[in-house]
Amino acid sequence: MSTHRQIAAINYETAARAVAIAMEVGESHGVKTVIAVADPSMTLIAYGMTDGATPHSAETSRRKAATSASTRRRTGMIPEALSITLPLATGSTLTTVDGGVPIFFDDVHVGGLGVAGGTPVQDAEIALETLQRLGARTEGMLK
Q: Which residue among 65, 92, 113, 136 is least enclosed by CB atoms within 10 Å?
């Protein structure tokens, strides 16, 4: 019997690179973004806020990152049946607002990326483009 388990988690260097890429992508879309990256335990690993971004987007990006890191799903693709109960059951720690995506390299899940600052559609576009530029998997995340 094993006494422990090993969990893959995004490292700071990759998380910081994801934040930088997402901020560049957001700028190219004309969106003042706030970016959060969490590991699978929902621990914040990296964070960035574009000058002029709205303050409430800070918490929104963290919740999107935590949700995708925990559920391994794009936040906008969480089943409708959970759209109210998930935030309520977690004290609003988790969200179903689009703009959060899980981070996979090949089949290894390492965390979640949360983008806030634009509309949910814009945030999701920025998140998906960030995954592509980062070299992470995007299959199964398109609606």
A: 92
Q: Measured on CA atoms in the order 44, 45, 49, 53, is the torsion positive or negative?
A: negative
Rg (CA), the chain: 14
Distance in Å from the first CA to the final CA of the chain: 41
Residue 38's φ and ψ, nearest 5 degrees, are: -120, 155
Q: Is 3 left (phi over 0), alpha (psi -120 to 50) or beta?
A: alpha
Q: Which two tokens stand for residue 81?
A: 């049946």
**Model's pTM, two decimal places?**
0.95
Q: Give CA–CA dist 108/106, Å, rounded.
A: 6
Q: pLDDT digits over 55-67, tens only?
A: 999 999 999 999 9
Please write down the long-range contacts of 52-55, taking CB distance under 8 Å and 24 or more positions apart. 53/117, 54/117
C-alpha 92/C-alpha 107 separation (Å) is 29
Distance CA 22, CA 28 (A): 10
